[in-house]
Specification:
The structure holds two protein chains of two kinds. Chain A is an all-alpha fold. Chain A has a single domain, classed as MetI-like fold, CATH 1.10.3720. Chain A is about 75% helix and about 0% strand. In chain A, helix 3 packs across helix 14, helix 4 packs across helix 8 and helix 9 runs antiparallel to helix 10. The longest helix of chain A is centred in the first third of the chain and has 32 residues. Chain B has a single domain, classed as MetI-like (MetI-like fold, Orthogonal Bundle), CATH 1.10.3720. In chain B, helix 3 runs parallel beside helix 7. Classes of the chains: A mainly alpha, B mainly alpha. Chains A and B meet through helix 2, helix 4, helix 5, helix 6 and helix 11 of A and helix 1, helix 3, helix 4, helix 5 and helix 7 of B.
């Protein structure tokens, strides 16, 4: 009924206003990024001059790429996010399975201790964790960047919630068939939790691709630095004030995630939604 | 039989819990202990100093400045992000033209590294050069150094935080809005109730759990997000944009005063613990969170 009324009406000021607001806000939100993209693809002479016919160029990208070891930074970041996600999924599945499936003394206290990490994250405990890494002899290694994040309270929480929805009959049937505990987890629980794992995976990868403070502290050489740290060093020291090149480097570091997001937009949005809503 | 299951459970838990204790619980506790000792320097080992570090804290003008700044930063970014996120979600949820594009524009900043965002905005703010300045000069306003002057640096940094996180929070509101039954809207339309009344009486109460969830996240972020400070201001000018976590970094890794940095960390942990306890009671008492 209401839709017919809306269409029949020639002009609805409310709807026009909503459109105006939505589009103005969208424009404001995309403007800084669009500006960066514009300068990165044009010669630096056009940095502040808007000319639709300005020549396009990839020179800024090649200059940025050759001025700093971005190739190596890429390898480091990819190694880092792959390592973190793999270990997180394995360790946190095991722990979540124990919390969801077994009844043992102290379970609630241990689970509460896991949840503490949602508030007091390793991001804040940088001073002490740096000392621990020093004692383990791990300073300036990719392993050290990932180590504090391996046991993710968030992943354990999410997976436990999902594992609890697994029908008990399925579980018992597998046990009767002589399935071991590990086999049960692997054959019954993990396949049913695949959407949750995908959601967590996207969140984890984008979080650690973008993480900056801890990697900045714990790394000190080209062989370990991830893209974010590499970019900050490049932007502050290597390039002077050539903004076209800095903007190109900025796009280099965020490119894969940005392109991945544009292609898998729906999955991204749904994953973030799924991961955020308990 | 039961005991055997306990052992199995323990085996499953052990790897994750060991790491969790080593990098979350142990450092949190050790940080509190460290705050009562002095920083070891050279051959001089750490000495027990009681509450000296805390006394220093209260007399440290930069710490006070960082706390005040962080309070202002939180007071701006939390409500602004939540309000914008809600507005965005309502825009995108309605039947507007180019919905997918608009939603993409809102959400895109979320997937960018904050450190990259900082570069983009530094350029945007650049005095006499960046886009913001060009727009201002079109309006005949004089050039202004937004990031470089003490009066505006903190606001510039806050704007960047809001820009980068509002789209993220929008997602949660979108999810909440789609759960509101259409029959309610129809009933309201028949009763002739205005959009504003409908929002105030129906939508807002129904999305309250989401608002709380988002508020907690925004609060944590107000203390945790400092990446852009490294590129944009380094806490300056003259500590105008100094935030607590950045100050912890500066004390711990620029001046290598680890005991004092530990003391600052204790303050940070205390704040976050308060947020956590507050969330626990609010979520438990006030709203039902399925």
């Amino acid at each position: 009924m209401s839709t017919i009324v809306t269409i029949a009406r020639p002009f609805d000021p409310d709807r026009a206003l909503i459109h105006l607001g939505a589009w103005t806000l969208a424009l404001m939100w995309i403007l800084p990024l669009a500006y960066a993209v514009w300068t990165a693809f044009h010669p630096s002479a056009y940095e502040t001059r808007f000319d639709l016919l300005a020549p396009l160029t990839l020179e800024n990208f090649t200059r940025a790429w050759t001025a700093a070891p971005f190739g190596r930074y890429y390898v480091n970041t990819i190694l880092l996010v792959t390592m973190i996600l793999t270990v997180q999924l394995v360790l946190c599945s095991l722990a979540a399975f124990a919390f969801a499936r077994f009844d043992f003394p102290g379970r609630n206290i241990l689970f509460a201790l896991v949840l503490v990490q949602l508030m007091v994250m390793p991001d804040i405990l940088i001073v002490r964790n740096y000392a621990t890494m020093g004692r383990l002899g791990l300073i300036d290694s990719i392993l050290a960047i990932g180590l504090p994040y391996f046991a993710s309270g968030f992943a354990i929480f999410l997976l436990r919630q999902t594992f609890k929805t697994v029908p008990r009959e399925l579980d018992e049937a597998a046990r009767v068939e002589g399935c071991s505990w590990l086999g049960l987890l692997w054959r019954v629980y993990v396949p049913l939790a695949r959407p949750t794992m995908l959601a967590f995976g996207l969140v984890s990868v984008s979080h650690h691709w973008n993480n900056f403070l801890w990697p900045l502290i714990i790394t000190s050489s080209v062989h370990t630095r991830p893209l974010t740290v590499g970019l900050s060093i490049f932007a502050t020291t290597d390039s002077g004030t050539d903004w076209s090149v800095i903007n190109a480097a900025t796009l280099i570091t965020s490119g894969p995630l940005l392109i991945g997001f544009l292609i898998f937009q729906r999955q991204f949005v749904q994953s973030f939604m799924r991961a955020g809503i308990k | 039989m039961l005991r055997r299951e306990w052992l199995v459970a323990l085996a499953f838990l052990a790897p994750a819990l060991t790491l969790l204790f080593t990098f979350t619980h142990y450092p949190a506790i050790q940080t509190v202990i460290d705050s009562f000792w002095s920083t070891p320097r050279g051959r001089r080992p750490a000495a027990f100093v009681g509450t000296d570090n805390y006394a220093r804290l209260l007399q440290d003008p930069i710490f006070v400045r960082a706390m005040v700044n962080n309070a202002i930063y939180a007071a701006i970014t939390i409500p602004a992000s939540i309000l914008l996120a809600l507005v965005m979600a309502m825009f995108v949820e309605g039947r507007i033209r180019g919905r997918a594009l608009v939603r993409m524009a809102y959400f895109t900043p979320t997937v960018l590294p904050l450190i990259a965002v900082a570069n983009i905005w530094l350029f945007f703010f650049l005095p006499g050069f960046g886009l913001l300045e060009q727009l201002r000069s079109l309006l005949g306003l004089s050039p202004r150094n937004w990031i470089g002057s003490p009066e505006t640096a903190l606001y510039g940094v806050s704007a960047v935080t809001v820009w980068s996180q509002a789209g993220f929070f929008m997602i949660f509101y979108l999810a909440a809005l789609t759960t509101i039954p259409p029959s309610l809207r129809e009933a309201a339309a028949i009763e002739g109730c205005s959009r504003w009344t409908f929002f105030r009486r129906v939508t807002w109460p129904l999305i309250m759990p989401t608002t709380l969830f988002v508020s907690v996240n925004a609060t944590i972020n107000a203390f945790r997000t400092v990446d852009h400070i490294f590129v944009m201001t380094e806490g300056g000018p003259n500590n105008a944009s100094m935030l607590l976590l950045y100050y912890i970094y500066a004390q711990g890794f620029r001046f290598w005063d680890t005991a004092y940095a530990a003391t600052l960390t204790v303050v940070m942990v205390a704040i976050l613990a308060l947020v956590g306890i507050g969330q626990f009671f609010l979520l438990d008492r006030r709203v039902h969170y399925r």
